[in-house]
Amino acid sequence: DPSMPPSGVSCSGCGAELQCRDGAAPGFVPAEKYRSLSEGSDGAAGLRAAVCQRCWLLAHHGQALGLRLPPEQHRQVVSTALRQPLRHGRGPLLLYILDLLELPDPVLPQLPALLSPDVPAAGVLVVGNKVDLLPADGPGHLGRLRERVTAACAQAGLRGAPLVDVRLVSAKTGFGLEGLISRLQRSWKCAGDVYLLGATNSGKSTLFNILLRSDYCKSRAPDIVDRATVSPWPGTTLNLLKFPIINPTCDRIFRRQQRLKEEATKTEDELSIEEKKYLNHLKKQGYLVGEVGRTFQRQKSNPEIDFDPDLLSYSMDEDPRHSPKKCEEKEEFTYNEVKDARWCFDTPGIIKENCVLNLLTEKEVKVVLPTQAIIPRTFILKPGMVLFLAALGRVDYLEGKKPAWFSVVASNLLPVHISTLSNADAIYEKHAGRELLKVPMGGEERMKEFPPLVPQDITLKGIGTTEAVTDIKLSSAGWVAVTAHAEEELLLRAYTPQGTALVVRDPPLLPYISTIRGARIAGTAAYRTKKPPSLVENLKTMGRR
């Protein structure tokens, strides 16, 4: 309904302004639903608990609506927010969320350009997310990962005073998050605002939701601030979302430390049935698991139902004109609660350029992006053999004197196919777009619009049979770690879709990844897969792990 004015109310899931004027623009709510919420007795307040149609479909059906929203608009929202005049006498702390699977991060070097020289950031704390998805390839693997992130920061121009710290976490399983919160409260305290920044799909909104229900947030805020919409679809957050940061007084820090000490004395066997069930669920999701608790919780005089705000918005099944339900009255912050508040902001993800995800449908994205612990797949190839990672990447072993090991680190749902060099082109022509190579999906019609694979030659020299010499990163589809005999020279040819980035990552992210394997499968180039055990943080080592 183009005649209806914009609401001035933000979607609680993505931050876009709710409207019913344009179905292809951010914040769209169907006109009938929009009117029923905005023209009731509560006026615009009826929209405050609602989410837009896009967030509703993402949350409940995993469907992503296409939007006429150029990538530059996401960047503009972030840049404008960071160039606001100084609040509380100092610039904000930037919490940069970096997807460990995407190293080297393509957006990190762009960070200085987003800032204004007149409003300098007080510092940058880099958070390496999704550490739970990566298997431990040997003792000290977390230290090596942290070194890789620190090196990437230095390469991007972040070093010394601007770089406050580097932390490794999993926003999904909770690993490392209590330590991150303690670090923020100990060093940053409540000195100024905090902005969560990062590329699309880095996990910013997931981290925002965890922090919203942690000791980092004011105790009453979770009852007032709705969670951000989380989805594998790139660019879910469209505008700023925020919650007020709690002031970490000495008393609060002491009470928090007491809680953490008490929880650390538990063994897994001492957990309740529900806690064990949830812990086992997280173990299936990732290799590293933690828990984020709350020390400061608001006491409620009356029992309240924990409702999902998504259910109060658009529904394809309900008729709002005859609905007997009335939206619950939404709480608001008092003036005193927010007059001097420092805020934690979730910002739109910055679109990664030259990324294969930009070429994929939402169904294909769900297959490509790993959501559970990655199980490495290792193959031993001779010269003249080819490895396909779905139809999104290909590595040819052209020249070498001895066999070499190729370890694939990618979503467990992406197929790997081994072929000979003489048959490779025919296999791609026949099976790209079909079940054998799986992604892209849609047969010949889909492949007509999909860009061709383009090659890049790579020369390597092996350093030993247990340590990879380099990673060949096939855009965001995953990577292949190459392990070869010491001093053995290899000539490889790697392919990715035209317009996407192929990166030769040296040193490799998981140098000993080829050792995580079972016995050789007779008559094939493959080894049996092997999944390392999960590690639970903040539980005593006695008892089951």
Automatic annotation (TrEMBL):
Boundaries of every NOA1/YqeH-like C-terminal domain copy: 406-506
Keyword Coiled coil (UniProt): yes
Keywords from the named record: Coiled coil
Coiled coil: 250-277
Keyword Cytoplasm listed: no
GO molecular function, one term: GTP binding
Domain G: 194-244
PANTHER family tied to this protein: NITRIC OXIDE-ASSOCIATED PROTEIN 1
Name recorded for this polypeptide: NOA1 protein
